[in-house]
Amino acid sequence: MGNQPDLRTLEGQLEFLDYHAPDEEARERHAAVNAAIKRLWIALAPVLPDGPGKTRTLHAVSHARMEANNCIANKGA
After folding, report:
1. From the first residue on, what is the mean pLDDT of each consecutive set of 10 residues in the chain (77 residues)?
2. Do 75 and 3 contact (CB within 8 A), yes or no?
3. 37 in a domain, yes or no?
4. In sequence order, what DSSP letters do the residues of the chain get, joined into one string?
5. Are 69 and 33 in contact (CB under 8 A)?
6. Within a domain: residue 46?
7. Are 33 and 54 a contacting pair, CB within 8 Å?
8. Domains: count for the chain
9. In a domain, 2, yes or no
Protein backbone atom coordinates (compact mmCIF):
# COMPACT_ATOMS: atom_id res chain seq x y z
CA MET A 1 0.00 0.00 0.00
CA GLY A 2 1.11 3.58 -0.61
CA ASN A 3 2.34 6.36 1.61
CA GLN A 4 0.24 7.49 4.55
CA PRO A 5 -0.90 11.12 4.62
CA ASP A 6 0.92 13.41 7.07
CA LEU A 7 -1.89 14.20 9.51
CA ARG A 8 0.16 17.08 10.97
CA THR A 9 -0.50 19.12 7.82
CA LEU A 10 -3.72 20.51 6.35
CA GLU A 11 -2.91 18.81 3.04
CA GLY A 12 -2.48 15.45 4.77
CA GLN A 13 -5.67 15.94 6.79
CA LEU A 14 -7.64 16.73 3.63
CA GLU A 15 -6.14 13.67 1.91
CA PHE A 16 -7.23 11.57 4.92
CA LEU A 17 -10.79 12.90 4.53
CA ASP A 18 -10.95 12.23 0.78
CA TYR A 19 -12.79 9.26 -0.68
CA HIS A 20 -10.33 6.47 -1.40
CA ALA A 21 -11.64 4.12 -4.08
CA PRO A 22 -10.57 0.62 -3.09
CA ASP A 23 -8.25 -1.42 -5.24
CA GLU A 24 -8.62 -5.22 -5.33
CA GLU A 25 -6.48 -5.74 -2.21
CA ALA A 26 -8.48 -3.15 -0.25
CA ARG A 27 -11.78 -4.71 -1.41
CA GLU A 28 -10.60 -8.07 -0.10
CA ARG A 29 -9.60 -6.50 3.23
CA HIS A 30 -12.96 -4.71 3.52
CA ALA A 31 -14.74 -8.00 2.82
CA ALA A 32 -12.69 -9.75 5.52
CA VAL A 33 -13.49 -7.02 8.07
CA ASN A 34 -17.19 -7.12 7.22
CA ALA A 35 -17.29 -10.92 7.48
CA ALA A 36 -15.50 -10.83 10.86
CA ILE A 37 -17.90 -8.19 12.20
CA LYS A 38 -20.89 -10.27 11.10
CA ARG A 39 -19.44 -13.36 12.82
CA LEU A 40 -18.89 -11.31 15.97
CA TRP A 41 -22.47 -10.06 15.98
CA ILE A 42 -23.86 -13.52 15.25
CA ALA A 43 -22.02 -14.73 18.37
CA LEU A 44 -22.97 -11.76 20.57
CA ALA A 45 -26.59 -11.06 19.62
CA PRO A 46 -28.14 -14.22 21.07
CA VAL A 47 -26.40 -13.88 24.46
CA LEU A 48 -27.18 -10.21 25.04
CA PRO A 49 -30.50 -9.33 26.66
CA ASP A 50 -32.70 -6.99 24.62
CA GLY A 51 -32.51 -3.40 25.74
CA PRO A 52 -30.47 -0.23 25.45
CA GLY A 53 -27.23 -2.04 26.32
CA LYS A 54 -27.64 -4.38 23.37
CA THR A 55 -28.33 -1.41 21.12
CA ARG A 56 -25.21 0.37 22.40
CA THR A 57 -23.20 -2.79 21.79
CA LEU A 58 -24.51 -2.98 18.21
CA HIS A 59 -23.50 0.65 17.66
CA ALA A 60 -20.03 -0.04 19.12
CA VAL A 61 -19.55 -3.04 16.82
CA SER A 62 -20.72 -0.94 13.87
CA HIS A 63 -18.28 1.80 14.86
CA ALA A 64 -15.44 -0.74 15.09
CA ARG A 65 -16.28 -1.91 11.56
CA MET A 66 -16.24 1.66 10.29
CA GLU A 67 -12.88 2.37 11.94
CA ALA A 68 -11.35 -0.85 10.59
CA ASN A 69 -12.52 -0.05 7.06
CA ASN A 70 -11.28 3.53 7.47
CA CYS A 71 -7.89 2.14 8.51
CA ILE A 72 -7.80 0.11 5.30
CA ALA A 73 -8.87 3.06 3.14
CA ASN A 74 -6.25 5.32 4.71
CA LYS A 75 -3.47 2.71 4.57
CA GLY A 76 -3.09 2.42 8.32
CA ALA A 77 -3.35 6.11 9.17
Report:
1. 80 88 95 98 98 97 96 88
2. yes
3. yes
4. --PPP-TTSHHHHHHHHS-----HHHHHHHHHHHHHHHHHHHHHGGGSPSSHHHHHHHHHHHHHHHHHHHHHHTTT-
5. yes
6. yes
7. no
8. 1
9. no
